[in-house]
Design a protein that fits this description.
Lyase, Ornithine Decarboxylase, Chain A, domain 1; 12 helices; 23 strands; binds pyridoxal-5'-phosphate
């Protein structure tokens, strides 16, 4: 058996196409003696029977452990340099009231980026003082609600917002804590990072303008300036981008200290996770150590105190906790001509179509993200075949897993699981083709329960103002 020439360079032929690589799956996932994937002791066959497919299956203990370990690592590393740290969970990765409670119970704060996310965090009963409110274009209502509810800190993203937040704080008779988002000129994504003087994007204030803008914030007595904020990108695998951003912000921090207090420094999120066997994610403990070292070294060089540092991981907390469970509907061997050859060589790509798709995982279509896939309810010794897992939408770009190897006898009726779908899948889901969004099920200690129910056809029709007859509705 040789590798399929259609396989991307990073994908090697697996020794065992049934193996579950620990880096890609949540800690509670294993195969039973019968070959059935189970999470926290609950087999996927039972989950599929009880809740149907597609289904997001979340390992609660995995989310809690990652949240706790991030908090412990940042506390430890910043205590060692005479300061402390706050870890915000970036709610946009996945937010429900349950998850908001889990992460705050484990010692995290929460970032929200819209009125809707704020509403979910408040509905969870989270102490508003733990919330950070983001957004490059917050509406007046969103600002008012954030201030009125007692949100811990609002991240100001533009000069326009200074007066809006200050006025709201005055109206409510409070002094609102704020950060200023700056554009550090560092942009990191996946395996590369770029540092420029000025970055061409919508977020934040250019570093060169930040001193003037902070002066405007300090001039408003209803605002309390807490410090700078920068977020340099997502799915980052190396500390160098974070270090460069921290270095630039600390230089500015020293200048700002000349005119008043700057107690904190928020370095954003973006810590990468493994989606495939080719990804080697950084450990959060290593990121914490690297950031503490660079911030402390810069503080020494500049002769200023080490600030309280805040970070905002989303994906790294929730991404690996979840897999999506699908049922295979059709399998097609597609003969593909291999470009650049003289003799029209061909190879077979096996298209495995599942009962979901780009509506429950938009990242593949949106970012050309790579995922992995495994047979979920059985193992097989059949020769591995290169597969592409496609969805059921009317779109050829409707792909969930661009390339992986599955046992070649994969067939209709099989359950397959796509790991590392906890972040930016449910939160980016849509109703394209009027597919109902799948349920999210949390599993813990052998017990599963719905934390967000799936949509029904009634849900899908419920906002349509022109329905003629109730009999047209075939609710499920
Ligand atoms: C998206 C975002 C995050 C989280 O990014 P992850 O890649 O999920 O860690 C944190 N902070 C801000 C401001 C963001 O926009």
């Amino acid at each position: 058996m040789t590798a399929n020439p259609l396989a991307p360079d990073w994908l090697s032929l697996p020794g065992d196409a049934n193996a579950l690589e620990p880096a890609i799956w949540s800690a509670g996932v294993e195969r039973s003696a019968e070959g059935v994937i189970q999470v926290a002791g609950v087999p996927v066959t039972q989950l599929a029977r009880e809740y149907g497919t597609p289904l997001y299956v979340m390992d609660e203990a995995d989310v809690r452990t990652r949240a706790r370990e991030a908090k412990l690592a940042f506390d430890r590393e910043f205590a060692a340099v005479g300061s402390s740290a706050k870890v915000y969970y970036a709610g946009k990765a996945f937010l429900s009231t349950e998850v908001a409670r889990w992460v705050t119970e484990e010692g995290l704060h929460i970032d929200v980026a819209s009125g809707g996310e704020l509403a979910v965090a408040l509905a969870a009963g989270v102490d508003p003082a733990l919330l950070g409110v983001h957004g490059n274009n917050k509406s007046l209502r969103e600002i008012d609600r954030a201030v009125a509810s007692g949100a811990g800190v609002i991240v100001i993203d533009s000069v326009d917002e200074i007066a809006r937040v200050a006025d709201a704080a005055e109206q409510h008779g409070v002094r609102q804590r704020v950060r200023l988002r700056v554009n550090s000129g560092v942009h990191a994504s996946t395996h590369e990072y770029l540092a420029t003087a000025r970055e061409d994007q919508k977020f934040g204030i250019a570093l060169a303008d930040a001193e003037d803008v902070v002066a405007l914030i300090r001039a408003r007595s209803s605002l309390e300036f807490m410090g700078l904020h920068a977020h340099i990108g997502s799915q980052i695998f190396e500390a160098v981008g974070f270090s460069e951003s921290a270095r630039r912000l600390m230089t500015l921090q020293a200048r700002l200290l000349g005119d008043g207090p700057v107690p904190e420094l928020n370095l954003g999120g973006g810590f990468g996770i493994a989606y495939t066997s080719a990804d080697e994610a950084m450990q959060v403990a290593d990121i914490a150590r690297a950031l503490a070292e660079i911030v402390a070294a810069e503080a020494r060089r500049l002769g200023i105190p080490v600030p309280v540092v805040a970070v905002e991981p989303g994906r790294a907390i929730v991404g690996p906790s979840t897999f999506t469970l699908y049922e295979v509907g059709t399998v097609k061997d597609v003969l593909v001509t291999i470009g650049g050859t003289t003799d029209d060589a061909t190879a077979v790509r096996k298209y495995v179509s599942v009962d979901g798709g780009m509506s429950d995982n938009a990242r593949t279509a949106l970012y050309e993200a790579d995922y992995s896939v495994r047979l979920a309810a059985r193992v097989s010794e059949a020769e591995p075949a290169l597969v592409r897992v496609a969805g059921k939408h009317c779109e050829s770009g409707d792909i969930v897993v661009r390339a992986d190897y599955l046992p070649g006898d994969v067939r209709p009726g099989d359950l397959v699981a796509v790991p590392a779908t906890g972040a930016y899948c449910w939160s980016l889901s849509s109703n394209y083709n009027y597919l109902a969004r799948p349920a999210v099920v949390a599993v813990r200690d052998g017990v599963s329960r719905i934390i967000v129910r799936g949509e029904t056809e009634d849900d899908l029709l419920s906002r349509d103002a022109g329905i003629v007859r109730d009999t047209a509705r075939n609710g499920n």
